[in-house]
Structure formats: structure tokens, C-alpha cells
Amino acid sequence: MPTKRSFTEKVHALARAIPKGRVATYQGLARQLNNSRAVRAVGNALNKSPGMCLERSRRVLCHRVVRSDGRVGGFASGTKAKTKLLEREGVVVKKGKVDLKKFGWR
Q1: Catalytic residue numbers?
Q2: What pTM does this model have?
């Protein structure tokens, strides 16, 4: 019998699925979890997981999740580090924003 995954585990699984060079929004992930009102909970699930963003074995690529208006948003290591990671993957960040039409996922 399969075990039921927690909300946080579901968020992490979705974040891991975001391809290199693409971004998703907190709102988009909440919608994929069939709970469009859980935007803040998605952010908390990504933020409150010690080491998850840097863990190598089951890496959650939380730097690939941005705000619904395209702004880079928060990041444990700071927005400059998040921007640098995104740009390293080919995502263009102009004036702190990502073009979601060009780089958005799902």
C-alpha cells in the first residue's frame, strides 16, 4: 500500500521537476497541487526545509520558483544568489524579473 506524501514532499517533488532554464511560480505550484490558495504554504515548504535547496542527492531546485509577477522573490541565500543561479542556467533576469512567457514552466 503506497504511503501518503505530505504537502511539503509534494512541493519538493514538483520543484525537482522544473527543468533547467525554466521557472515556475509559487502560485503555479499551488495550482498543480489543486490548492490555489496555498501559495504561501508552497513558499514556506521550500523555505523551511533545511538544506533542501543545496542537498545533492535529492536536490530541490527552489531557486527555479519565482513570484507570479516574474520577480525573483526570496531565497535563503539572498536574491543576488538566486539571480546568479537562474542566469547560470540560461534564465534571463532583467531588473529583478523573469519573463514568464519565455522561461515559464507549465
Answers
A1: 62
A2: 0.86
